[in-house]
Amino acid sequence: MTEVAYIDRPSRALYFYAILYLGFLYIPVLFLPMFSFNDNIYIAFPLKGFTTKWYMEMFNNQPMWAALNNSFNVACVSAAIATLLGLFGAKAVTRYRIPGEKPIIFVIMLPMVVPYIIMGVALLILITQLGFDLSLYTVTMAHVLISVPFAMATLISRFEGFDQALEEASTDLGASPLSTFWRVTLPLVFPGVLASFLLCFTISFDEFIMAYFLAGTDPTLPIFIWSQLRFPLRLPGVLALGSLILVVSFVVVFFSQWLRSYRVEKTQPGI
Amino acid sequence: MTSNNDFVSLTDVSKHFGSVVAVDHLSFTISRGEFFSLLGPSGCGKTTLLRMLAGFESPTTGEIYIDGAPMSEVPPHHRPTNMVFQNYAIFPHLNVRANLAYGLRYDKIEKAEVGRRVEEALEMVKLPGFGNRRSNELSGGERQRVALARALIKRPKVLLLDEPLGALDKKLREEMQLELRALQESVGITFIFVTHDQEEALTLSTRIAVMTRGKALQVASPKDLYNHPVSVEVADFIGQMNFVEAQVMDVRNGEAVLDATGLGKITAPASSDFVQKGANIIVAIRPEKLILSAERRSDGLGAVQCTIKTSAYLGDRDHFYVSVDGCEKPFAVAIAETGANSDQSLDRQSIVWLSWADESLILLPRD
After folding, report:
1. B225 and B245, same domain (yes or no)
2. Which residue from A minimizes the CA distance to B139?
3. Average pLDDT value for residue range B249-259
4. Nearest CA in chain B to A174
5. Does B87 contact A at CB distance below 8 Å?
6. Where in the sequence is the domain holding B256, given as residue range(s)?
7. Which residue of A has its CA nearest to B143?
8. pLDDT recorded at residue B351
9. Which residues, listed in sequence order, are joined to residue B29 by a DSSP beta bridge?
């Protein structure tokens, strides 16, 4: 008899499947860093030799840095706004009895499934009809719209993760609802707030379609990269940048997932 | 102004959740300094009532007065009440000291005084030196004390306790019961205590409201509840009770002559209006008031022959279940292990006598 419970017994077939699956997911992505170190301006096999010159080139590319800066600003602002809205929304749906709560949540979550190209076109029409100029502000607005559902989803699970009696205890001890929010609710949902911010940041940072429709003369980074594809000479530099972004994104996503799973200590008594 | 007798007063208080009536037209008063328990099975409305006292729910009808002031317009954070929550609700992001000091900020108390009161409160609940711990570093009993200290440090007019001992194991619970009672006597604050454990309510309370389906069946001291229940429901809920159906044959001089199923013609003290000639009523008697003997006793007690069906040894006492001809359910008889009223030679097979004193019979109306 083995000591492993039947249900926990390892399966060779599933193990193999998992490796295949991970390979399918990540091997294509690994081509990016691989070619970014390849000493050849053509993106093709065989690999010629190791170089870091594309990275040096990238660092001297001023328009690229401008685009990166634009993307960073748009991502920061839209993530901050989306997280703030998500925070209020999540508190509302988890803490109050709202008539029509289900339909409201459905409407808020809808942008998650509406194709971005449809929304991009719709927003483009709306914004031009209202007479606004296309700019990074319009991109930021669009990114808030698509980020809010993710912020809500992240924060709702966080709000549901702690005992509501804690908030009641706070008001019972004399704290007003606002004071309770600052002293109890916010500290307890803070890991969720941070996770939401990071998630929304990455959503905005690599969003292309809506930014392409709604950006004016200032490109965001994805738009800039796309524009560079027309110039084969610049492609290796783009690969270098792409590799760096890949590394940063992985770190950010792992960090936000870690925060999400970092749970509030249960207030259950005893061991 | 209020007298001490109606320090907390409920007038016609109801709470509806949609079509569900959680609390149904309750009216009673609680005196200053009482240890008052709301006792009932889960879903009887006791927790809803407590939450209305705290201000987390507002009554659908009626009004709650605390120290003479109507409470319906007063939000929880302005009420003179504090609560010990069922799962204690210790703030997990704060240490014990910060938990205790949490509410003092709103009482405009100087920093030095806050520190002094926190230490004093920790002393009071026997947790000195626990100030820097967090809730996950505390045992169940310790959390319970922290929750108690955090509420009492506010010096409320009324302390509300929502089954605070429910999560503790039996031994710790009994220990905490005694401490809680002693603490209440020393601070003199009015306690309103919610529990479903009748033993706990009897141990702790000065008075108990027995609740079912949102109604208070009886509000009385533990002794009165035990010895003079007003209904079969209360009698059944508080302790163990034997019930027999009976018809009143005659009433005179405060004594009723009854024809009881299985027991035959018996007499019992009659003090209530419903005991009228010809009425069908219920006779109740506590297991420990019944006496088993091998021979018919010669001291004039009511008696009937019976057979022992089963027995259970409970350490401090024996429980016998005896059947009497004509009675559907066996009678429970409790005999203290070293009791003077037990005949040592009782054994299962021997036909024995079941006796009782007339005064120990309780007459109850049929529901």
Report:
1. no
2. A270
3. 84
4. B77
5. yes
6. 240-365
7. A269
8. 67
9. B9
Residues of chain A contacting B114 with CB distance shorter than 8 Å: none
159-178 of A, contacting B, C-beta below 8 A: 162-163, 165-166, 168-177
Question: Is 1.10.3720.10 the CATH number for A63-261?
Answer: yes
CATH code of the domain in which B81 resides: 3.40.50.300
What is the pLDDT, as a whole number, of residue A258? 77
B245, B232: one domain: no
The set of residues, in sequence order, having a beta carbon less than 8 Å from that of B224 and lying 6+ positions away, is none
Report the CATH number that the domain containing residue B251 is assigned in CATH: 2.40.50.100
Q: What percent of chain B has pLDDT over 70?
A: 95
No. of helices (H) and no. of strands (E), chain A: 12, 0
State whether B75 and B149 are in the same domain.
yes
Domain boundary among B203, B236, B269: B236
- Continuous segment of H or E residues that includes residue A123: helix A116-130
- A vs B, Cβ pairs < 8 A, gives 92
Q: Which sign, positive or negative, has the C-alpha torsion B212, B217, B222, B224? A: negative
| pLDDT tens, residue by residue, A212-223 | 888 888 889 888
> Cis omega (within 30 of 0) on the bond before A46?
yes
Show me where the domains of chain A are located.
Answer: 10-51, 63-261
Q: Nearest CB to B103: which of A173, A264, A267? A: A173
**Chain B contact for A188, CB < 8 A?**
yes
Model pLDDT, residue A266 = 39
ipTM over 0.95: no
For helices A235-261 and A62-95, angle between their N-to-C axes, nearest 10 degrees: 20
Digit-coded pLDDT (tens) for B29-73:
999 989 999 999 888 899 999 999 999 999 999 999 999 899 988
**Do B228 and B256 fall within a single domain?**
no
